[in-house]
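tl;dr need the bound structure. longer version: we got a ligand (zinc ion) that a collaborator sent over and nobodys looked at where it sits. i said id run it. heres the input, straight from their email, havent touched it
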Amino acid sequence: MTLQRTFDFSAAKALLALALLAIAIPAPAAQRNPPAAREEVPDAAEAADGRENIAPSGLQPVFPAQMRCAPIASPYGSPTRYDGSARPSWAFGGRHGGIDISLAVGTPLLALAAGTVMAKGEGGMLEGIYLWLRHAPADTGLAYWVYAKYQHLDALPTVDIGETVKAGQVVARSGKTGTAGRHYGPGGYPHLHLTTRKSTHGEQSLGPRGAERGLFLFDPLAIYHDAAAGAGAATADARAVPIPYAGADGTLNPSGTRVVWPVACAPGG
Ligand SMILES: [Zn+2]
């Protein structure tokens, strides 16, 4: 790629004049200190940007009868952690930016739909080892693109960036990276934190925490809700969300579903 830009001297002079003017006029004291940089926001796992507005969706998962599925320990928008303790107010107004599912270390984590591996890496405190998947409308049947982040993984996932994955495919193992210390103590808290963001397009880049313009946090349960609605499987209670799932053998239920719970369900209610 070549950059062929004509240098515009008049524009440069105007900019220089503006810059000098800005230096010459002292800013009011309150504006002299810039707001804390994004990296200084003392959150990492729960959401990406302190300005984000997180509100509970009111959706309730309905897991299949006669099956054991890993439930939500702390829902999206919740002011409390899995243990009932209050979330700190400095992190997104004390609201949870995803869902937590308590899991034994090493539990297989499944792609919630077909998609593409966008990123993986090792974050620090509160973030841990993570994986980003991107799901196109063609993958899910939804009207929007889904960007899903799996956190606190046990190890760096072996799936490659750019690789395509199938719904229900094992893409990572759950862990507790990034959770030890502070509230959870030295032992940490083994769980999956799943964050989902939606966009109108598939060209989103992912910032340090995933918050980018046009990429909005939302309740992962909305994916299952919207998929059911799209399939004409509306429930009597609009807030009740039937959860499609994969069995341990990889079978998707109900058959033909394009979205599944990120952890396999096992027989036995
Ligand atoms: Zn969480």
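gonna send this back to them w/ a short note. Helices lie at 9-24, 29-32, 137-140, 221-230.
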